[in-house]
């Protein structure tokens, strides 16, 4: 039937998007390895090239169904979209140590921020991707210490605390999002432990001095 064909078409593009997301994830996971820190700019640049592919794939996805039926089929690409939001947020964080806005993510992915304009980035998909970023940064804080970078965990800690404050202001009605937000508390705690450990070892003074000196 027409619907079966349509779903098969959507699935095909979604699988291509999932493949691109996997390649990007593999690439960016490299920042956690010992000398991965030196390569961050190069990895981000490479990831940006992958987003070119994502935009092409998104263009293809948009043609598969009528624009006003976005939510009818949303379930089919919701997870890959959240994964791509996370990847975009991670790249932007690695480049600038700031939180990417929903508008900026939409632009990176080649879709709309505004629901009225068709294929867009749903606010809950954006928030979900941002929460994945938080747990990735908790991991990065731990690995920074191993790599001998003691100022990065302090900066990550500030960023995550601001993120946590922002989420507290939201009235999260979506259950899966609320559960994900509960995970943020663990990320905050994990990073606090890293920072506390650095302070006990007297390493945060070097870090703070170093960070101050760079400005």
TrEMBL record:
<protein>
    <recommendedName>
        <fullName>Translin</fullName>
    </recommendedName>
</protein>
<dbReference type="GO" id="GO:0005634">
    <property type="term" value="C:nucleus"/>
</dbReference>
<comment type="function">
    <text>Exhibits both single-stranded and double-stranded endoribonuclease activity. May act as an activator of RNA-induced silencing complex (RISC) by facilitating endonucleolytic cleavage of the siRNA passenger strand.</text>
</comment>
<keyword id="KW-0963">Cytoplasm</keyword>
<dbReference type="InterPro" id="IPR016069">
    <property type="entry name" value="Translin_C"/>
</dbReference>
<comment type="function">
    <text>DNA-binding protein that specifically recognizes consensus sequences at the breakpoint junctions in chromosomal translocations, mostly involving immunoglobulin (Ig)/T-cell receptor gene segments. Seems to recognize single-stranded DNA ends generated by staggered breaks occurring at recombination hot spots.</text>
</comment>
<dbReference type="GO" id="GO:0046872">
    <property type="term" value="F:metal ion binding"/>
</dbReference>
<dbReference type="GO" id="GO:0004519">
    <property type="term" value="F:endonuclease activity"/>
</dbReference>
<dbReference type="GO" id="GO:0005737">
    <property type="term" value="C:cytoplasm"/>
</dbReference>
<dbReference type="GO" id="GO:0016070">
    <property type="term" value="P:RNA metabolic process"/>
</dbReference>
<comment type="similarity">
    <text>Belongs to the translin family.</text>
</comment>
<dbReference type="Pfam" id="PF01997">
    <property type="entry name" value="Translin"/>
</dbReference>
<keyword id="KW-0540">Nuclease</keyword>
<comment type="subunit">
    <text>Ring-shaped heterooctamer of six TSN and two TSNAX subunits, DNA/RNA binding occurs inside the ring.</text>
</comment>
<dbReference type="GO" id="GO:0003723">
    <property type="term" value="F:RNA binding"/>
</dbReference>
<dbReference type="GO" id="GO:0016787">
    <property type="term" value="F:hydrolase activity"/>
</dbReference>
<keyword id="KW-0238">DNA-binding</keyword>
<keyword id="KW-0460">Magnesium</keyword>
<dbReference type="InterPro" id="IPR016068">
    <property type="entry name" value="Translin_N"/>
</dbReference>
<dbReference type="InterPro" id="IPR033956">
    <property type="entry name" value="Translin"/>
</dbReference>
<feature type="binding site">
    <location>
        <position position="136"/>
    </location>
    <ligand>
        <name>Mg(2+)</name>
    </ligand>
</feature>
<dbReference type="InterPro" id="IPR036081">
    <property type="entry name" value="Translin_sf"/>
</dbReference>
<dbReference type="InterPro" id="IPR002848">
    <property type="entry name" value="Translin_fam"/>
</dbReference>
<keyword id="KW-0694">RNA-binding</keyword>
<keyword id="KW-0378">Hydrolase</keyword>
<keyword id="KW-0539">Nucleus</keyword>
<dbReference type="GO" id="GO:0043565">
    <property type="term" value="F:sequence-specific DNA binding"/>
</dbReference>
<keyword id="KW-0255">Endonuclease</keyword>
<dbReference type="GO" id="GO:0003697">
    <property type="term" value="F:single-stranded DNA binding"/>
</dbReference>
<keyword id="KW-0479">Metal-binding</keyword>
């Amino acid at each position: 039937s027409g619907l079966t064909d349509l779903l098969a078409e959507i699935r095909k593009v979604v699988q291509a998007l999932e493949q691109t997301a996997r390649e990007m994830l593999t690439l960016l996971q490299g920042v956690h390895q010992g000398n991965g820190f030196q390569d961050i700019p190069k990895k981000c640049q490479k990831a940006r090239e992958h987003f070119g592919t994502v935009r092409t794939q998104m263009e293809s996805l948009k043609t598969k169904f009528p624009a006003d039926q976005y939510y009818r089929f949303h379930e089919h690409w919701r997870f890959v979209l959240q994964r791509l939001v996370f990847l975009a947020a991670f790249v932007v964080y690695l480049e600038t140590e700031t939180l990417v806005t929903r508008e900026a993510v939409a632009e990176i992915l080649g879709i709309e921020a505004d629901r009225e304009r068709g294929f867009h980035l749903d606010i809950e998909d954006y928030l979900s991707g941002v929460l994945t970023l938080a747990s990735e940064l908790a991991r990065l804080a731990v690995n920074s210490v191993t790599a001998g970078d003691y100022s990065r965990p302090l900066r990550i800690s500030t960023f995550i605390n601001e993120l946590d404050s922002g989420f507290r202001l939201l009235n999260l009605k979506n259950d899966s999002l609320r559960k994900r937000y509960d995970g943020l508390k663990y990320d905050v705690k994990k990073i606090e432990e890293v920072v506390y450990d650095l302070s006990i070892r007297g390493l945060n003074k070097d870090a703070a001095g170093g960070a101050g000196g760079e400005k």
